[in-house]
Amino acid sequence: ATIFVLNGPNLNLLGTREPDIYGSDTLDDIAGQLEDRARTLDLDIDMRQSNHEGHLVDWLHEAQARKAKAVLLNAGAFTHTSVALHDAIKGIVTPVIEVHLSNPHTRESFRHVSLVGQVAKGTIAGFGTLSYILALEAAARF
Ligand code: DQA
Q1: Could you say which residues bind substrate here (predicted)?
Q2: Structural domains counted in the chain
Q3: Which residues surround ligand 1 with Cβ inside 6 Å?
Q4: Fewest CB atoms less than 10 Å from the CB: which of 27, 35, 51, 109?
């Protein structure tokens, strides 16, 4: 079974982007760790990143069309703004797990609302790279 791992805006900058908040792992480092763990769970990872909201919408639809077992979604700042992502998650039956490196609730008030979290199966936030691994562990049990 395949797990889609979809990453939104600015996550291509991981490694150098505000490392005190997001850690020093790059997105490739995270992909490598996910692939290592996925192998032991007999799962395949399809990891993608885009700075464009519509790409993320299309990929959510594709996850369902390809019968992905689950989607791990770090929508970045679109988490807090995107009705389109909210509707896309609602519109597919594929379970979506919201993932964040940081814990948005401990940060600026504009990060306290998640339009993704309102329709996700669950949320894992605040554990850096480990947030992705924990989300994969959850998805493996679906
Ligand atoms: C983030 C949290 C968001 O608020 C922020 O806009 C990001 C990263 C996280 O992984 O902690 O881009 O999704």
Answers
A1: 74, 80, 87, 101-102, 111
A2: 1
A3: 10, 74, 76-77, 79, 100-102, 104, 111
A4: 109
